[in-house]
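Morning!

As promised:
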Amino acid sequence: MSRHVLLIEDEPNIIEAIRFLLSRDGWRVDTHADGRDAVDVIRRVSPDLVILDMMLPGKSGMDILSDLRALSDYHSLPVLMLTARGQSRDRDMAERAGVSRFMTKPFSNAEVLSAVRDLVAEVPDP
Amino acid sequence: MATLNILILVCLAYVALLFTVAFLADRRARRDHAPWLGTPLIYTLSLSIYCTAWTFYGAVGYAASSGLEFVTIYIGPTLVMIGWWWGLRKLVRIGRSQRVTSIADLISARYGKSNTLAVLVTILAVVGITPYIALQLQSITLSFGIFAGVDGGDRDVAGGITFWVATGLAAFAILFGTRNLDVNERHHGVVTAVALEAVVKLVALLAVGIFVVWGISGGVSETLARIDNSEIGAWRMDGGRWTTITFLAAAAFVCLPRMFQVMVVENDDERHLQTAAWAFPLYLLLMSLFVLPIAVVGLDMLPGGANPDLFVLTLPLAEGRGGLAMLSFLGGFSSATSMVIVAAMALSTMVSNHVVMPIWFSLRRDGASFSGDVRNIVLQARRISIAGIIALGYFYFKLSGGGAALASIGLVSFAGIAQILPALVGGIFWRAASRTGAMAGLIVGFLLWLYTALLPGLGIGLMPYSVITDGLFGLAWLRPHALFGISGLDPLVHSALWSLTLNAATFCLVSLFTFPSPLERLQGAQFVNVFDHSAGPRGWTRSAAQSEDLMIMSQRILGAGQAQALFQREADRQGLPGHLPDPTPDFLSRLERELGGSVGAATAHAMVGQIVGGSSVSVEDLMAVADESAQILEYSNQLEAKSAELARTARQLREANEKLTQISLQKDSFLSQVSHELRTPMTSIRAFSEILRDNDGLAPEDQTRYAAIILDEALRLTRLLDDLLDLSVLESGQVNLNLRAGKLSDVLDLAVATALTGAERKLVVHRRHLDEQIALHTDLDRLTQVFINLITNAQKYCDAANPTLTITVHDIGGGLAVDFVDNGSGIPADAQSMVFEKFARVAAEKAGGAGLGLSICREIMARLGGDVAYMPDRGGGAFRVTLPTVLNLAAQ
């Protein structure tokens, strides 16, 4: 059974690039581009991993992460955060909010791929 | 010689008696209060130092030459005692409450504790009194001479005796005048000795008088008959002289340093004045009772060349009454010695306190401590001053060679001393009297008196004769006896009139035109209203309760720590256990100074006075306090103004700082935004570049599509960088405008064409070409850029099904408006205010721009002197570009 990734990102070209990468590696990729209902989408889709952009329309990736971690079922859901704002302050905030991995844009495709693989492998199957 | 020797022995015995009396009185006074000391009787008798040898011998001589005029010398003091005792009471009360040591001290204290004034009064007194002391020495010499002459002995012996007499007087004055340094400056020994001498001279004169009336003339009626027959018995009243001399005598009675000494300084109880008010005039009456009979009988009985000044001596001698003559001699001797002793004491206090000590202090200012030995220094200064003053009188006597010239010196001296009167009387009755006024009046009076009375009157050639006859520098109106052309007056009347009138006038006028200092005003109020301030005749009572009250008050003003330290220090200094010192005057003045540093001198004085004096605070005190408060208020107003200024500066700094912080935050935020905007296209570029590199088996159409994405994102990067640079140049104001002439319609044509080229969506643009035929003179390229931006925005964001943009041109007052209104839903109200901010994006979806377009438009329009603004409530997205008319060219 193929692993399932939910990509929450609003840049069409970046969505296409990541979808291409993960699909080739055998992942099922769902995408969503709006911050406001992102948490609902995560709960509905219940992916094995979430790739989350920081700057999203309506609601920031940081807020989404906090809301998500506040839900008891999603304490350990792997979340890979990608951001174009690579300041250390943002990294600190994300780690406090419970991010699993934090990567800055532009990223290396190989790194994203291995990060996704690692994060999902670490989580024991439910 | 036998008689002279006996005389000397008698003198020595008499002086020894005086010494004993003074010594005993001093000792009794120190041990306990002897009932007979400090009685009204002693006080009244001590006032008799007014009657000097000049009165004792001279009155008869005066009567022999001028008849009854001598009475004026007695009328003056009598009038003062009877008619002005309340004024004297005020002086006495002031003297006690201010702890005054001399008349110079009183004047100085009244006028703001000015030492200059004290020095002036001291100089005046010394100059005026020295000849007077010489006069006393002369009288002693003459009387010795009579006995020497009767014996046919050498007159020089008498002269030598004068020296020893002067030395003896100096010794007496030093011994009893400077035994101790009492704060009250009371000398019971001297006063008692003076009282004794008063009795001796009265008894002597009465004895001679009785002998003359009943022993020589043969009874009262016979004597009266003799007087009637004598020409001096006639009333030859010269109104001017009588009035003048009466006035001078009255003034001198109050102002003479020795009179001030016995009347004010030595006064134990001001109630004694009530007795003296009738008893002293009685004494004067007795002293003057037999003057005329002695003069008349003397003129009748004695040979023509006899000196009338010595009738009191020569009449008994001529009648062979050696004992009576001896008594008479002792009377004259008493008059002279008591005057010299008290005058020397009074003057020495003035000289040492106001001349010697200030000089000594100023010389020793460099860190010498004045703790223990100041007392000795002061006493030493007093002693030297006494010796100096008597020596001065002695040398003056030797220099002037005695003679008749000295006889008139008494009245001249009175006139000089009277110069103090305006400042004294003004000082205790007139609050507005000022230091400058007193100083000016005294100087004017002093100089006029010197010029018109003392210098011409002195027999020692101090003034060239030509000045007296022709005036100074040969100016007739400066003749000493006919000043300003007023001639024909008696010289004494002339001098007194000019000097006192101008003195008083100067004093009043200058006082009116000068403003006294707060201390002067406070002192003035205390002097003028002395009865409201001081607590009864017995002064302050001291108690620990007062110390406690003082402590409580001081803590409030100085703070607990400082006040306690101050009190503790003082208690230690006084050698008292505990922390509460006695409220000694010394401590009180120190406390006043300490408090004055915080609340001002007048306030501190009023506060301390309230507690210690138990006195009510007067209106004047309150006014002085108010003055001080006003000054403090002014200072605090200035402080407030300063602190307001500081607050303003601080606010400006804070604002500047906030602005800088804000700018710094904006810069950080801007850099963060720029970073984000750059990284996003770069992410796509990198991702797809890696995909193309790593995946050989890509379908050709995918390869093409991914390459196109890379190209698009690269272009987006370029646009972003272009915009950033453009904005940077515009914001820094370094943009070069390329001003050209053109037509609005052409600019709009170009903008619309550029914006719509290659657009995916179809935007319909409505224009009214007729309105657009307006000539412009501006940077046409920049204006085009703005228009393109606005049209592109409409194309991107207009959410209507059939997007339409209407461009209209309006002539608004002073400018031209170009409106761009589309038919979409417009910008939400909450975002309207920020659409022109950098990186502001309204719509959720990305439209390819970096969010700098409108910022650039705003900067461009600002450079062109116009504006671009969002217009709410126009039914859709609506922007207005305004251009100033000034740059418009006239339509063709």
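Strands of chain B lie at 739-743, 764-767, 775-779, 804-812, 815-822, 867-870, 878-884.

Hope this helps with the figure draft.
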